[in-house]
TrEMBL record, chain A:
Residues 492-504 have a biased composition (Basic and acidic residues). It is found in: Nucleus, Nucleolus; Nucleus, Nucleoplasm. The lineage of its organism: Eukaryota, Metazoa, Chordata, Craniata, Vertebrata. Component of the PeBoW complex, which is required for maturation of 28S and 5.8S ribosomal RNAs and formation of the 60S ribosome. Belongs to the pescadillo family. Residues 323-416 form the BRCT domain. SUPFAM superfamilies: BRCT domain. GO terms for molecular function: ribonucleoprotein complex binding; RNA binding. Residues 447-516 are annotated as: Disordered. One of its GO terms (cellular component) is nucleoplasm. Residues 455-491 have a biased composition (Acidic residues). Its main location: nucleus. Keywords: Coiled coil, Nucleus, Ribosome biogenesis, rRNA processing. This is Pescadillo homolog.
TrEMBL record, chain B:
It comes from the Eukaryota. The lineage of its organism: Eukaryota, Metazoa, Chordata, Craniata, Vertebrata. PANTHER family: RIBOSOME BIOGENESIS PROTEIN BOP1 (PTHR17605:SF0), RIBOSOME BIOGENESIS PROTEIN BOP1 BLOCK OF PROLIFERATION 1 PROTEIN (PTHR17605). It holds the Pfam family BOP1NT. Component of the PeBoW complex, which is required for maturation of 28S and 5.8S ribosomal RNAs and formation of the 60S ribosome. This is Ribosome biogenesis protein BOP1. Belongs to the WD repeat BOP1/ERB1 family. Its main location: nucleus. One of its GO terms (molecular function) is ribonucleoprotein complex binding. The keyword Nucleus applies.
Length: 570, 722
């Protein structure tokens, strides 16, 4: 009659997904290896739409991968390497057991390794893709480079991370692409604009880490493995884009020239060279020594109307950016030993300043405290012994605030021992209706070129604005609109009632005619009220679903408004 | 040889001896120790030195022994002598063998603690296996002292534990000891500063050091090595061993990976979802945030109470006065790890976020302004009742308003002046009042307790009053077979009640909750809600004074009833549904599902095709009888239970009264065109009643001709909104 009976779960979504365990079995890998493979290849689980169908009728919680992904993994050459490594470990164990030391040595020398180049290429087919995804890589490398060289992960990894991060910082300095810096309680956030991509990374403060026990360092190490490879390739490309020598070399014709070439070369591979690089005080060697970068000039296109405006805006922005890049140019900084040297040196050099520090703090200091041309000395202690007259003694926050404000802020607020103004996040972009901290308004005024003298007026204005807003909100917020009127009426009624009572109690009542009051009708207000009521009535007629959505949106909005209103009251 | 007594004596003496020995030892300790040290340090030399003067010492020993023995027993002396001979023999022996590095073997016990022999008369055995007896002497401290004083050799006398004898050191021996104590070589002739002759020097000599001919094996290749090499070669051939890998240079590891674009990978990459970036930090996270971003105590407490997953911020904002005070963030590694987990464990999904403008969600309705007239303001309040006003009704002319209250009175008001024209005390809480809709009569039905009263308020033209009187009295002349019904008793009002306007009393078996008139004004129906019997609804005919119970079966608790305004239909609302009966055919035509939990009130559109029904779960449902048995529209305008609903007779308005103290007037246009659905627009929310005992507005009714609405509330007032 009707052919074969259709079997369940043999077509449709059930065949598109595979559980993690089955995937593991298919790849013949142990769980850690599978995990590593997923991390390296960027395979993540998928949430099927109909879990029960995919799970063949069971509702047990399972992780599902796309079958296509797993098939894709099957062809990965690294899987073979994993197996090889497994065998290597087995052989090594055996050799140890038999105490065949020569065999152990030989095996060790031939430890199977793998390269991730093809994976990088596959995951990031274009350079821009790689740049877009480099945030996490930078964060991770910066974290690993601060690890102590004990346990937790291989020393080589830490060294490599350190090298790559130093290379990255040197690139950012050379390209002057740093845009924003933020001192948070977690660490220091930096944001750079590299090839049009905004790249943000966070560097922890320089302290030894309290390694938590509930963190799986193998996972982190696997990520780092991938990220170091990625970062290396990206650095190479970035360096070559700026005509810099890739394993970065210090510019030899700079004033901070080391003695002889041969000796220098000898020291090239050692850590001291890396340290010199990481001092960030000297510029890098270029492949083609160019005298000056030609300024990027926007070509003029014949345009009209809106395009014109846009063009102008863009030009203006570009100009501003250029100005920001030269923010610290001509300034000479000296870092006291208690300030975070690396961060400050990085920031100062990124904006064209000159920087030095005490010789005993780090290698690569270029001038001494006694240098009379120093304009700013960065200091973070309540008082200082000997002060030079011709320089500012300021706290480190000034630098960061200047970078975020894109102008040189007045130094008075940041002098030695002065209570610092709040440090604001440069990443917050206030939309309309959001709360703007007064400090930000002040900064914006400064940016516009206004003097800080008239801030009070502004504040007042603000308050007024806020007051207006509040009023509006009140009107909008609830149906309190006509309550006031109601109250009046109620009062009147009360009067009437009293009179009535009097009338009913004592027959001999004094009939009294009170003069009527003229009610002033506020037309605008009435209109508004009417509109509000209309809206309210229309809301009543909403469908249940839409009402729910509407209520949700309005709840969010109201909460925001409330927050904005309560914040400055604290 | 020995006697017991002697033995004990011996023992004692020996013990003493021991003590002395110890003292002696103590006194001579440095020398002794030195000797010992030297023994251990450089045995050979010491022994050699001792050997040199060995004979002397022995002799001296012997003589010493002799002296002692002289003062002791003869037997012992004899033995000693023997011993001396033996030792002499032994000495010769030593010389014969010239075994200078052998032990002192006069006593063969070996290197053992000598106290093991302290209980024995002997201290060991000589080479021949004979016992060496202890010298019997009783040298006490006095003897020792005397010895020290008298004997010039005392300082060089050493006690030999091994043999138990005192040895006087010779001059050579003393010299040796002195030399050793000074840290010099024992041998006087040894020159420690001799020039070194290098045996293996940097100079290549022409002759070999040894003249030994080379082995044969040095000419023949090694077999074992050959085996090993062949094994390795085989392993390399088979690929088991790989040649040493070339150390790859870290510098050349990176190259321009993106030199050429590969389109094959791009195809796959189209499906790729990049992981979302970590949100950027706000002002909260600053090390020195503006003070308003710091937590207050309450917020902090709340933060600590909350589950980490529910927290708005994963950290507590902190303020540090300077950068150097900022500590490490303890959760830094954690956060990075969490991010890692997110990257490889979280399913990713592209989510289309619709940015909805909330204004767009609000439906576009005609403006209430365009739908006028409708009541907008409270213009009159009717006061006079002392209890909550349960029910109101307007006379068909629109001039009078009747209200029944819990204070046991029915009041008649003039609508325009809000004057109470008449008050009738009926003696019980009035549940329902209903004005006869027939304009040619002026009668009011009042339901209280288990009675329905018919009142003739005489508030109309004489003619109308007469006609209503006639209607009431007409049946009197007719028969009175109505009694046959049994449970319902009709009776005439008398005396005082008659003066008040009371005309008829219809006694029901149970409490009556509602009374309604038919549009013609001859029939009226009453409700006695009771879940247990089918006697819940009665239809009374006034002209014939007859009552009948139309239903023979209980279909649920009846809440309210209504007559169809035009056709012979009868609406019965039970808890959850409304049944429509055809009174002519005596069958149920329709059953409306209200989708609400408990119906409170019901009103029929004057056209007769629409029904609204309010329920205690705040809903108002509009039924289009031609459309479906399901509500055409459910309105959830009220916050609390809906108590009353009403249609206007002429205008397209309906109103609903609720416990939240508001009356909502809606515009509800009904079109004659069957295809067009009714348009329902709320036009006004009317407030005017005060909430008392959680009750707000109890009844609502429209003016028959004007767009006015009356509402009666629990605050004992009636309001007129115009």
């Amino acid at each position: 009659m009707g052919g074969l009976q259709k079997k369940k779960f043999e077509r449709g979504s059930a065949t598109n997904y595979i559980t993690r365990n089955r995937a593991r079995k298919k790849l013949q890998l142990s769980l850690p290896d599978f995990r590593r493979l997923c991390i390296l290849k960027g395979i993540y689980p998928h949430e099927p739409k109909h879990k029960k169908k995919v799970n063949k009728g069971s509702t047990a919680p399972r992780t599902f991968y796309l079958l296509k992904d797993i098939r894709f993994l099957l062809h990965e050459p690294i899987v073979g390497k994993f197996r090889e490594y497994k065998i290597f470990v087995r052989k090594l164990k055996k050799a140890y057991g038999k105490t065949e030391w020569s065999a152990v040595e030989r095996l060790r020398e031939n430890k199977p390794t793998y390269k991730l180049d093809h994976i990088i290429k596959e995951r990031y087919p274009t350079f821009i893709d790689a740049l877009r995804d480099i945030d996490d890589a930078l964060c991770m490398c910066f974290l690993f480079s601060t690890f102590a060289r004990t346990g937790k992960c291989h020393v080589q990894t830490i060294q490599l991370c350190r090298r790559l991060t130093v290379e990255w910082m040197n690139y950012v300095i050379a390209s002057r692409s740093l845009r924003k810096v933020f001192l948070s309680i977690k660490g220091i956030y930096y944001q750079a604009e590299v090839m049009g991509q905004l790249i943000t990374w966070v560097v922890p403060y320089q302290f030894s880490h309290d390694h938590p026990v509930d963190v799986d360092y193998r996972v982190m190490a696997t990520f780092t493995e991938l990220y170091t490879t990625l970062l290396g390739f990206v650095s190479f490309r970035l360096y070559s884009s700026l005509n810099l020598v890739y394993p970065p070399k210090l510019d030899s014709n700079g004033e901070s020239e080391p003695k002889e070439e041969s000796e220098d070369d000898y020291a090239m591979n050692s850590e001291s060279y890396l340290e010199k690089l990481s001092a960030l005080s000297a510029s890098l060697a270029r492949v083609v020594s160019s005298a000056d970068e030609e300024e990027a000039q926007l070509d003029q296109f014949p345009s009209e109307g809106e395009d014109m405006e846009k063009m102008e805006a863009r030009e203006k922005e570009l100009k501003q950016q250029e100005a920001q890049k030269k923010l610290f140019e001509g300034l000479k900084f000296y870092l006291n030993r208690e300030v975070p040297r690396e961060s400050l040196a990085f920031v100062i050099r990124c904006f064209g300043g000159q920087v030095s520090w005490d010789k005993s703090v780090c290698i690569g200091s270029t001038y001494d405290v006694t240098d009379e041309t120093i304009t700013h000395q960065i200091i973070d202690r309540p008082s200082v012994g000997k002060q030079y007259i011709n320089r500012y003694y300021i706290q480190p926050q000034w630098l960061y605030d200047c970078v975020n404000a894109k102008i040189l802020l007045p130094v008075e607020d940041y002098f030695l021992g002065v209570t610092l103004p709040p440090h604001l996040s440069p990443f917050v972009e206030e939309k309309e209706g959001d709360y703007v901290p007064p400090e930000k308004l002040k900064m914006m005024a400064l940016q516009r070129g206004e003097k800080p003298g008239n801030e009070q007026e502004e504040d007042e204005e603000e308050e007024e604005e806020e007051g207006e807003q509040e009023e509006e909100e009140e009107q909008e917020e609830d149906d309190n609109g006509d309550e006031e009127d109601d109250e009046e009426e109620v009062a009147e009624e009360k009067n009437l009632k009293k009179m009535e009572e009097q009338r009913s109690q004592g027959k001999s009542l004094h009939v009294k005619v009170t003069p009527g009051k003229l009610k002033v009708e506020n037309k605008a207000r009435l209109e508004q009220e009417e509109k509000a009521e209309e809206k309210r009535l229309a809301i009543m007629m909403m469908k249940k679903k839409e009402k729910y959505l509407y209520d949700k949106i309005m709840f969010g909005k109201k909460r925001k408004v409330r927050e904005v209103r309560t914040l400055p009251l604290r | 040889m020995k006697k017991a007594g002697g033995k004990t004596a011996l023992k004692r003496s020996k013990e003493e001896d021991e003590e002395q020995n110890q003292i002696f030892n103590f006194n001579r300790k440095p020398a002794d120790e030195d000797k010992d040290d030297d023994l251990s340090d450089s045995e050979d030399s010491v022994y050699s030195g001792l050997e040199d003067s060995g004979s002397d010492s022995e002799e001296e020993e012997g003589s010493d022994d002799d002296e002692e023995e002289g003062s002791d027993d003869n037997d012992d002396k004899m033995k000693e002598k023997k011993e001396g001979e033996v030792s002499e023999e032994k000495k010769k022996h030593e010389y014969e063998h010239d075994s200078s590095d052998e032990e002192d073997i006069r006593n063969t016990v070996g290197n053992i603690p000598m106290e093991w022999y302290k209980d024995f008369p002997h201290i060991g055995y000589n080479l021949d296996g004979k016992k060496i007896y202890k010298p019997i002497r009783n040298k006490d401290e006095l003897d020792d002292f005397l010895d020290k004083m008298e004997n010039p050799e005392y300082w060089r006398t050493v006690h030999d534990k091994q043999t138990g004898s005192d040895v006087v050191l010779s001059d050579d021996q003393v010299e040796l000891v002195n030399r050793l104590q000074r840290g010099q070589f024992g041998d006087v002739n040894f020159n420690e500063c001799e020039p070194m002759v290098e045996f293996f020097s940097s100079d290549v000599m022409i002759h070999p050091v040894t003249n030994r001919p080379a082995d044969k094996r040095s000419f023949i290749p090694s077999l074992t090595e050959k085996e090993k090499v062949s094994k390795l070669v085989h392993a390399i051939k088979m690929g088991w061993i790989k040649p040493r890998r070339v150390e790859d240079d870290g510098r050349g590891r990176y190259y321009n990976l993106w030199a050429s674009e590969d389109s094959s990978i791009l195809a796959r990459h189209k499906m790729h979802l990049p992981a979302p970036k970590i949100p950027l930090p706000g002002h909260h996270e600053s090390y020195n945030p503006p003070p308003e971003y710091l937590f207050t105590d309450e917020e902090r407490a709340l933060w600590e109470q909350q589950d980490p997953a529910d927290r708005k911020l994963p950290f507590v904002p902190r303020k540090y006065s300077s950068l150097r005070q900022v500590p490490a963030f303890s959760q830094f590694i954690h956060e990075r790890f969490e991010r890692c987990l997110d990257l490889y464990l979280c399913p990713r999904q592209r989510k289309m976020r619709v940015n909805v403008n909330p204004e767009d969600l609000i439906p576009q309705l005609p403006k209430p302004k365009d739908l006028q007239p409708f009541p907008t303001t409270r213009s009159l309040v009717y006061r006079g009742h002392s209890g909550l006003v349960r029910s109101i009704s307007v006379s068909p002319s629109g001039q009078w308003l009747a209200s029944g209250s819990d204070d046991g009175s029915v009041r008649f008001w003039e609508v325009c002046s809000s004057r109470c024209m008449k008050t009738v005390q009926v003696g019980g809480a009035v549940k329902s009042v209903a004005w006869n809709p027939n304009p040619s009569v002026c009668l009011l039905a009042v339901a209280l307790d288990s009675v329905v009263l018919i009142l003739s308020p005489s508030l109309a033209d004489k003619q109308v009053i007469l006609s209503s009187e006639r209607l009431l009295s007409a049946q009197q002349e007719g028969e009175e077979p109505a009694e046959g019904n049994g449970s319902v008793v009709w009776s005439e009002a008398e005396g005082e009640e008659l003066n008040q306007g009371l005309r008829l009393k219809i006694q029901h078996p149970k409490a009556v909750h509602q009374v309604v008139w038919h549009a013609k004004g001859d029939y009226l129906a009453s409700v006695m809600p009771d879940n247990t019997s089918h006697l819940q609804v009665y239809i009374h005919q006034l002209s014939r004074r007859r009552s009948q119970n139309p239903f023979s079966r209980n279909k649920g608790l009846v809440q309210c009833i209504s007559f169809h305004p035009i056709r012979p239909y009868f609406f019965v609302a039970t808890q959850r549904s409304i049944r429509i009966y055809n009174l002519v055919k005596q069958e149920m035509t329709k059953k409306l599902q209200t989708n609400s939990k408990w119906i409170s009130s019901m009103a029929v559109h004057p056209g007769g095709d629409h029904v609204i029904c309010g329920s205690y779960d705040c809903k108002l449902s509009w039924f289009d009888l031609d459309l479906s048995t399901k509500p055409y529209k459910m309105l959830r305008h009220h916050k609390k239970a809906v108590r009353g609903v009403a249609y206007h007779r002429l205008y397209p308005l309906f109103a609903s009264a609720s416990d939240d103290g508001s009356v909502i007037v809606c515009h509800g246009t009904v079109y004659n065109d069957l295809l067009q659905n009714p348009l329902i627009v709320p036009v006004k929310v009317l407030r005017g009643h005060v909430m008392t005992h959680d009750l707000g507005v109890l009844d609502v009714t429209f003016h028959p001709t004007q767009p006015w609405v009356f509402s009666s509330g629990a605050d004992a007032t009636i309001c007129l909104f115009t």
